[in-house]
Each structure stands twice: as structure tokens, then as C-alpha cells.
Design a protein that fits this description.
Radius of gyration: 22 Å
CATH superfamily of the largest domain: Nucleoside Triphosphate Pyrophosphohydrolase
Strand order of the largest sheet: 1-2-3-10
Shape: elongated
CATH topology of the largest domain: Nucleoside Triphosphate Pyrophosphohydrolase
CATH class of the largest domain: Alpha Beta
Order of helices and strands: HEEEEEEEHEEEEEEHHHEEE
Strand content: 35-45%
Number of strands: 16
Number of helices: 5
Helix content: 10-25%
């Protein structure tokens, strides 16, 4: 389908007339559609078209999510994020791009990748598709190769803490927060595998995690104990697993 085709909009009274591009940059271009709106008036509809991008949720074998803390010139502040990057300077598949960004931004590699779907980075002023990849068993085994403007700190964070940061607003980059929450079940499974099975974990999700299935290799009565209090990622006593109520 051509970018000028808006069949659903046409059915609802939007009539596309023409397109102009008043500004183009290597990462995006500003698009101005001249459109007859549903009220019959002809007006411009201006938005940004950007190349697609990927967000990587990297987790190590011992249950650490690899977050980055990056200085962002636009907000003049530091930002908690996931490794990510766009297709504006890349020719290849989304998975290939995800591998590149993990290597370049944090020096990471993985042999265990899964696609976790796509999302729209904006729906009113920004036209871009973002792809999410989960990378398990990540190894930080090489020197990062960052772009000149990338001032990045690498922070391995335990799974419960990373999810708390996404849910509680410490991760202000909504794309990174969404990617983490899309992978929440997978992250808990990794964390459960590396935590002692005789202990319990206290954290803050809003819904109770289902028991991991038999294929996970965990004891059938392993569950997470959830509380509504602030996250406490310390392991509790050795009393053993506790049935959900």
C-alpha cells in the first residue's frame, strides 16, 4: 500500500489531495498532506515520517536486565533506556539491527533471540514502527562501538528492579518501558530459573504471575509471592514455596 493510501480514513470522510515534504533529515522527514477533512474544509495535516526502529530487552543468564543510562541532549538530562536503534543507517532485517545495537551500545552478544511484536511510537504526530526483541543469556564480552553523540552508562539491573522502574515511572522513555513490560513473563521465567527454588521473591506487579509450566524445569509448586508494597528484591526465608490464595 502506498503511503498516500488511507482507505479507512477515506471511508470516514477524509479525502487525500496531495503531499509535500518541507523538511528532510537523514533520520526522518516532515510530511504535509493537503486533505479535505470530514467537515469538508481543506487543511494541511502535518506529521513526521521516520524509519523503523528496534528495542532490545537484554537479560543475562543470572537474571540481570542490561539497562543503559544515556545523556539526551533534547531533554538536557540523563535517561534510563534499553539498547535501541533505527533503520535510517542500516540495511538488513530487524533481528540483524537488534544484534547490531546490542553490540554497539553495551558490547553485548546473545545466541537466544525472540521477536516480541511491534508497536507504534506515535499515532498523531509521528509515523514510525518499533520492533521488540528479547535477548536471553546476554554476554557483555566486547567493547561497545558507539556513535559520537552517545554518552552511555551500562547498568545490569535485577529483573524485579527493572520491571519496577518501568512500571513506576523511573524509565521515562515510554518505548523502553513498554518493551520491558511486553517481555515481563519471559523475564520472570529467567529470574525464577536462577533464583534458589526454596526461596520466595517479593515484588510489585499488579497481577499474580501464573505458575510456570512443566517445561520450565521448575518445581510444580514454585510461585512468586506478590505484595502491594514497595519492591523488595531481597530473598525471603527458606520456608519453601507458598501456595497462592
Amino acid at each position: 500500500m502506498l503511503s498516500t493510501d488511507k482507505p479507512n480514513g477515506r471511508a470516514l470522510g477524509w479525502e487525500y489531495l496531495e503531499t509535500r515534504y518541507p523538511y528532510t533529515f537523514r533520520m526522518f522527514r516532515v510530511r504535509e498532506d493537503i486533505v479535505r477533512w470530514p467537515d469538508g474544509q481543506v487543511r494541511p495535516f502535518v506529521y513526521v515520517e521516520a524509519a523503523g526502529a528496534v528495542w532490545v530487552v537484554p537479560v543475562t543468564a543470572d537474571g540481570q536486565v542490561i539497562l543503559i543510562r544515556q545523556f539526551r541532549y533534547l531533554i538536557d538530562d540523563w535517561s534510563w533506556e534499553l539498547p535501541a536503534g533505527g533503520f535510517h543507517d542500516f540495511q538488513g532485517s530487524p533481528l540483524d539491527l537488534a544484534r547490531r545495537e546490542l553490540a554497539e551500545e553495551v558490547g553485548g552478544e546473545s545466541d537466544d533471540w525472540e521477536y516480541r511484536g511491534f508497536f507504534r511510537t506515535g499515532v498523531s504526530l509521528f509515523d514510525q514502527v518499533g520492533h521488540i526483541f528479547l535477548a536471553r543469556n546476554v554476554r557483555l564480552c566486547r567493547e561497545p562501538d558507539r556513535e559520537p553523540g552517545e554518552i552511555i552508562e551500562v547498568h545490569p539491573v535485577p529483573v524485579p528492579r527493572a520491571l519496577e522502574m518501568a512500571r513506576g515511572g523511573e524509565i521515562l522513555d515510554v518505548h523502553s518501558a513498554l518493551a520491558l513490560l511486553r517481555c515481563e513473563g519471559d523475564l520472570w521465567e529467567v529470574y525464577a530459573r536462577c533464583a534458589p527454588l526454596t526461596k520466595r521473591v517479593r515484588t510489585t506487579p499488579l497481577q499474580v504471575r501464573d505458575r510456570l509450566d512443566a517445561n520450565s524445569g521448575l518445581s510444580a509448586d514454585w510461585t512468586f509471592v506478590l505484595t502491594g508494597t514497595a519492591a523488595d528484591t531481597s530473598l525471603l526465608d527458606d520456608a519453601g514455596p507458598q501456595e497462592r490464595k
